[in-house]
Specification:
heterodimer; A: alpha+beta; Histone, subunit A; two-stranded antiparallel ribbon; two-stranded antiparallel sheet; flat; B: alpha+beta; Arc Repressor Mutant, subunit A; 3 domains; eight-stranded mixed sheet; three-stranded antiparallel sheet; 15 strands; 18% strand; elongated
Chain lengths: 105, 485
């Protein structure tokens, strides 16, 4: 999967990996699309390779680009029941529940 | 082959807050479906999470309680998976930098031995909603009231070696979090849910075998049963030369078995990344210190104090310090009656026994600690016998009044008057001349049995009211006297 050329690590991606990502993301793709996607993702990975080449030895991982910390909210109930409004735009509801196609583990 | 069980537990603890971890919706249990699900909880476009200060406070309190490292800088991450009760398509959790790092606490086993169980980490996250599969034919119903309820996921090291230890760990954890007041600990309402990681290895080995994870085991008893079952299943596979598949299994309490959850396998790639909608959570030393100072006496400290202050054994001290209401009750009884050891016996045997039989908790107990303490005082001052006291206790339970009123009303006063008891003893000895003769000819062991018989007869004639100590003394005197003649 990892080939080395011109001294830079070059990432390629297997078709099976594309298929797995599609399953995880719940995106349906056709077999013809897999080739195109593999090509485009490989290009993105090349850019990642470029970034990987930077020496980040002494750099703290950054969780957020803003130089600020999380403000905390007091523990108070501020939301009232707006179920009717929300369920008016849902495709299917019954007895106060949202209905979705059957899922079973 | 002898197998050793290696167990690690992940506990999802619902934190006691008024509102959700990232929204201002209420968290009340048992509300009408979806009446506590706001636009944030439903993942409406443009909604942003704002972190609940109380959830952070509770998490840090727990960290201090287990002597863990508290992260002054922690980050939330997205855990991505698809399921209808998770409308955003990801759960906000913590991955790389949990708010609570390594800690540990001690568990005490029934035989009095103790073990230290390591805690790997504890992190904050949001709960998902509930899926209801049974009520509809082609649909699943979704209730998002629970979505966004604050959870603390507490991950133990694989330090647990048996089902009994797992249960002891969970009980100790339950006791700790309810003392701290960070959770109501209500298992029936799902406030404490447990995933069990379990593997086997040949006894003496230090390598770890392949583990399976049993999801969502929701009572102490089911944890025990699920572990027993999974041990059997893995041992059978290994003994036939097979290998264990690393997988997620579900414990079915009705069938008492675990079965594979295949659907989880494909999705087991959560693609964590930092949550861009939340900034890093930063807490300072002063804040942590202020929480440390507010901590109540914890179960460990109380247990030790019960041993030194009241002279209780480790097991009794552990049971009585198990919950704060029980510990408070015991201390009030001990103070009222002035004898901690008898108080310990009464609380554990009579009181807890009765509470167990009727299935209620110490908070619902109809007999107050003062009332029980006063009853024990009547045993200590020889007003009634221990046996009578049990009868009085039952009447107190039934609401017939306090100990003195019941003793009076039922005529249970213990007779310690030597003259009255002596008359009964004489009657018993003359009515049982044959047994007296046997006694005189018997050896020590046989004599003991016969004395038991005489005491029984005297108690019967006195309708249980004779002071057993006085009866014993008088019998000894009379029988020795007979022997001398």
């Amino acid at each position: 999967m990892t080939a080395v050329s011109n001294g830079v690590t070059k990432m390629a991606i297997e078709h099976s990996e594309i298929e797995k990502i599609a399953v995880l993301s719940h995106i349906r793709i056709t077999s013809e699309e897999i080739g195109q996607l593999a090509q485009r993702i490989a290009e993105i990975l090349q850019m990642v390779d470029q970034l990987q080449a930077v020496d980040t030895h002494d750099v703290e991982p950054m969780a957020n680009p803003l130089d600020a910390v999380q403000r905390l909210r007091p523990d108070e109930v501020t939301q009232s029941n707006r179920r009717d409004a929300f369920q008016a735009i849902a495709p299917a509801v019954e007895n106060g529940l949202y209905l979705v196609p059957k899922v079973i583990d | 082959m002898q197998w050793e069980t290696v167990i690690g537990l992940e506990v999802h603890l619902q934190l006691a807050t008024q509102s959700k971890i990232f929204s201002g919706s209420a968290t009340t249990f048992g509300a009408e479906p979806n009446t506590q699900a706001s636009a944030v909880d439903l993942a409406m476009p443009g909604m942003l999470p704002v972190l609940n200060a109380q959830a952070v406070h509770h998490a840090i309190k727990f960290g201090i309680g287990i002597g863990a490292q508290i992260s002054k800088h922690s980050v939330f991450d997205r855990k991505n998976y698809f399921y209808p009760d998770l409308p955003k398509g990801y759960q906000i959790s913590q991955f790389e930098t949990p708010i609570i790092g390594k800690g540990s606490f001690e568990i005490l086993m029934e035989d009095g031995s103790s073990r230290t169980i390591g805690i790997t980490r504890a992190h904050l996250e949001e709960d998902a909603g509930k899926s209801l599969h049974e009520d509809f034919i082609n649909y699943t119903g979704i209730d998002l009231n629970r979505a966004g309820t604050p959870l603390l996921e507490i991950v133990s090291e694989p330090d647990i070696r048996s089902a009994a230890e797992a249960v002891a760990y969970l009980k100790a954890l339950h006791s700790l979090v309810t003392y701290l007041g960070i959770s109501d600990g209500n298992m029936a309402e799902g406030s404490m849910r447990c995933d069990v990681n379990i593997s086997l290895r040949p006894s003496g080995s230090t390598l770890l075998g392949t583990r399976t994870e049993i999801k969502n085991v929701n009572s102490f008893r089911f944890v025990e049963k699920a572990i027993h079952h999974e041990f059997q299943r893995q041992a059978e596979i290994l003994e036939e030369g097979g290998t264990i598949t690393q997988e997620t299994r579900l414990y079915d309490a009705d069938l008492d078995e675990t079965r594979s959850m295949r659907s989880k396998e494909v999705a087991n790639d959560y693609r964590y990344f930092p949550e861009p909608d939340l900034l890093p959570v930063v807490v300072d030393d002063a804040y942590i210190e202020s929480i440390r100072k507010s901590l109540p006496e914890l179960p460990d400290g109380k247990r030790t104090r019960f041993m030194t202050q009241y002279g209780l054994g480790p097991y009794d001290a552990n049971v009585l310090s198990g919950s704060k209401p029980l510990a408070d009750y015991f201390e009030a009884v001990a103070e009222q009656c002035g004898d901690a050891k008898i108080a310990s016996n009464w609380v554990q045997v009579e009181l807890l026994g009765q509470l167990n039989r009727v299935g209620s908790s110490i908070e619902e107990c109809p007999v107050s600690a003062i009332a029980l303490g006063s009853l024990i005082r009547r045993i200590l001052d020889n007003t009634i016998s221990g046996k009578m006291a049990k009868q009085v206790f039952e009447s107190m339970w039934a609401g017939e009044g306090d100990a003195d009123e019941i003793i009076e009303a039922h005529g249970l006063l213990q007779v310690s008057d030597t003259g009255a008891i002596e008359a009964i003893v004489d009657d018993v000895l003359s009515a049982n001349a044959a047994q007296v003769q046997q006694y005189l000819n018997a050896d020590e062991a046989k004599r003991k049995k016969l004395v038991g018989f005489f005491v029984g007869q005297v108690m019967k004639l006195s309708k249980g009211q004779a002071n057993p100590q006085v009866v014993n003394e008088l019998l000894a005197k009379k029988l020795t006297h007979n022997e001398a003649e």
